[in-house]
Amino acid sequence: MVCGHLSVASLAFSEQLVVWALRQWTTSRESWPCVEREFRRVCRGAAGVIAAQAMAETVGLIAARSHRQVECHSLACRRVSADEAGILTLIAASQIYDRHTAEARARELVPDRLVPVLLESIAVLGAALAAADRSLPPRYAMPGSGTTIH
What we know:
Layout (H helix, E strand, L loop, with lengths): L12 H15 L4 H12 L1 H21 L16 H14 L3 H11 L5 H17 L19
Helix pairs in contact: 1-3, 2-3, 3-6, 4-5, 4-6, 5-6
């Protein structure tokens, strides 16, 4: 999984949007209407509405049913937590139909019986983002810096 020294500034805009939404949820759920408006603005039209709803379902499920404490940094933090990076990986893997990676990341977050529910919500989120040209880059599948490719 990618995390380590990953900074928010180094993320693609779509990744920043997801991390921001995660952090908004953990900071104050009263601010969620602002998140929904931003998804509708960024993704435009039906894709924005669907993405916002799927994001809410995703973070709601993780918050309510995760079998461990999921770490999301504060809104001002410049670093990406391992859990935030894992959720980005989960969405990116879903978008490129990498079921193995998506299932592995989902199992890290929720009990086995809820993995299909989380994967469905993630698939809807990923599809809505992709429909709005906001796909997440599959960082986990990219070679690290300094890696030689032969």
